[in-house]
UniProtKB/TrEMBL annotation:
GO biological process: peptide catabolic process; proteolysis
Protein name: Aminopeptidase
InterPro entries the record matches: Aminopeptidase_N-like_N (IPR045357), Aminopeptidase_N-like_N_sf (IPR042097), ERAP1-like_C_dom (IPR024571), M1_APN-typ (IPR034016), Peptidase_M1 (IPR001930), Peptidase_M1_aminopeptidases (IPR050344), Peptidase_M1_dom (IPR014782), Peptidase_M4/M1_CTD_sf (IPR027268)
Compartments (UniProt record): Membrane
Entry cofactors: Zn(2+)
Family classification: Belongs to the peptidase M1 family.
Organism: Conger conger
Amino acid sequence: MSKGIFISKVLAVSISVVTVSAVASVVAMITIFQIQVENKPPVRPPTPPVTTPETTGPPPNMRLPKDLVPFDYSVFLQPYLYGEVTNITNQTFEQNIGFSGESTVKFKCKKATSRIFVHSKDLNVTFMQVTDVNGSNIPIKEHMFHEDGSNFLEIVLSKRMKTSSIYQLHTKFKGEMRDDLSGIYVSQYQENVDEKRRPRFMVASQMQPTDARKVFPCFDEPAMKAVFRITIRHRKPSIALSNSEARGSPSVEEIDGETWYKTEFFPTKIMSTYLLAFIVCDFVPKETSSLRTTVSTYARPEAILAGHADYAQSITGDILSVYEELFGIPYPLSKLGQIALPDFAAGAMENWGLITYRETALLYEEGISSTFNKQWIATVISHELAHQWFGNLVTMKWWNDLWLNEGFATYISYLGVDKVNSSWNAKDLMVLNDIQSVFQVDALATSHPLSSKEQDIRTPADISQLFDSITYSKGAAVLRMLSDYISDSVFKEGLRSYLNAYKYSNADYKDLWKHLQEAVDNNQGEELVEAVMNTWTEQMGYPVLTVDTISGNLSQQHFLLNQTSDYNYLWLIPIKVMKAGGKVRDELMRKGSDSKSAFIAEKDEWVLANVNCTGYFRVNYNQENWQRLLQQLNNTHSEIPVINRGQLIDDAFNLARAKYINITLALNTTKYLSNDTEYIPWESALRNLEFFILMFDRSEVYGPMKAYLRKQVSPLYNYFENYTLSLTVPDSHQEQHNQINAITVACSNGLPKCTEMVKSVFTNWIDDPVNNTIHPNLKSTIYCNGIAMTGEKEWDIVWQRYQDASIATEKDKLRYALSCSKDIWVLSRYLSYTLDAVKIRKMDAVSTINYIARNVAGQSLAWDFVQSQWSYISEDYGGGIMSLGSLIEGVTQRFSTEFELQQLKQFQKDHTADSLSSGIRALQQAIERTQANIKWVKENKPIVLDWFRGQAAESQGF
């Protein structure tokens, strides 16, 4: 049986009606929906945004991200230093003295981020806090210090900072003040009190290039400019100095039973971190007030009292006025302080408003310091004051354009010195001091362009390596060439425009070209600044211009000492050319070869290219023109400008080294010198013959060479003999230089009348130091030659006088003289003294080692010493600007054997990039230079020996 459901008839009809109605309603709704869709199609709902995760870790280029831009710092520092040693303080120079501080930096967020990167090195950061513009705290999720060479402190926040909003980072920190002459450090000096010498201590600073991060956490890149509000707490009775003027007198605070001062300074102008300066000392100033700017020169109280700062103080205001007129912009600050530091790594540092100097670069004592010391002081002050505009007011965007700072300051400094004393002819000396010297480095394949690629300069070691002669001297040389090319007046107009456009900001070299071109165009000139100058700044090295005076054809080639250029460089070359009779023409050589009638010689006339060495290149000629120029030198040398007499000698010797001409032609350029008493040609010849001495003073060539030098210098020595015998000097500044050359060359090559004079004068000084009648100009050469002629007893006496000397310029002369001993064991002992900062200050250690290496008796000793002590040297001196590079260069100058080359290569293998630090490029250059020297000696030694022997025979009438 089956089961079923039964319903009534009425209910069935009702259900049917409802069902039909429902279906009809659905159909109607679908129809209406389709009509609405056709009239207004539906829009797809938006896709939820995808959140891009932030990049973690430091930027791979080791540069600060551009997300955050600082604009205001408040920095408080408290160094725990006692200026004077007492029974209570018991402070020593070797101690690491601490400091503490706080910093608040305000910055704008340019791009939303939760990460803050600042620089911090060797600091113990004890507190960090980030707040927004309303003072609300933003929690820090984590922080980390990166040990990859970037020196980054990375702070990760719990949430992102907003674009265009203002934030601030507050930190507290502690650190140590070492004696490494970087960051903020301790310097010790001696003060004479009641005829007793007592140790005193001071705090000094050196931030350039990357050491502000050692003092406080900061955005330590030159383009990250900001205003700085500095406060320093320091022990009574010291004073504190910084970039700005102090806000009145220090306030007094009692802390743990000690009296402290707190000095607050007015806000600085907008500036880069590397220009900050902090000093705590007991120094006193020499002051001069003008209408706008107060100039103050600080030094040890006894130095100020003795008038040692008077010369610097007397010229600073004048140079400042010269630059204000030249640049068309007043010095921007209300005060200019400069201070002589007992310990300082560089020669000076252009900190805005508080320039720091070595004592030898600022202090001058009449009767003790030489006129060359006076010239050096004027040069350094002029250089640092030029930086107040070039570097401080307008700063390079990144360190790859460092030459915009240093090249300009070097070039402009000659203009400043010329205003101080035009009789020095300082602008002429640039050819010797900068152009000829940097030619040697720039003729190596391991040189570098003035403007390196930004991505190639990343680490502090990369940056430190740029502080070399290419940056300073080549930078100055190409600017001198450019000024001559477009005219000094147009150059000046362009500089003014450039400085006004970028003041309190940053620029690169293309910005400079733009403004100089505008000045050219405004004066209806046709010169093309960027096209010409890019060939000099973006390419390393320089050309040799070959002139054929028969056809007038010109050709150029990248000049390298080993002639193996793979770069195919070509330059646009501005040339000044003259012929016998003195008329000068300006020409521009296009890239590649060229032909110009101005270079064709008629009959027996000669052609001289690069008049007054305004161009940064060497010149080679066809054989006929070389012979005519040599004949002119031998007949009437004054027909050729004095600078070009030096140029012909320098070019000839270096062309011979690179095998463009025969070595005997180069040597023949020196034969006329027995009739010339001018400094520039003599100095050019001696520097090039110094290379021969370095190559051959350990061989049989040296004897005949000494005989030739003795013969050639004899007339020059006689020319100055009356002055020399009376221990006085001529009036002419350049003749004063050449008098030193005459004595140095005559005595070192055994001219009897010179050696007898030195023995007598030196012995009198040893026996009676109180009545020292030696003119300050003559001290270095007489002290040196005297030490070389005597023994241990005299060396020990001079060493004691070095220790007792209180005048820095006198100490430098004595320190150099001590390296001239011929006793190997004495030199070895002297080298060991450079490891003791009490005996030889750290700032003088590298130059002392290099002095010893220049002495043939000390060469191998110095090299062995550097190898054995490299770990200590690189650790203690690796941060100093140029120190390691100049050390490697100095101790390897004489290298010319396969054994020495292998030692260099082994040294390179044995040391890491971190260990070599700023000396990496110098070591590469030393290897390249040694390879070139080996090849040169092998090829030229027999020829050179025959030539010198021939000159000896000629002088004896054989």
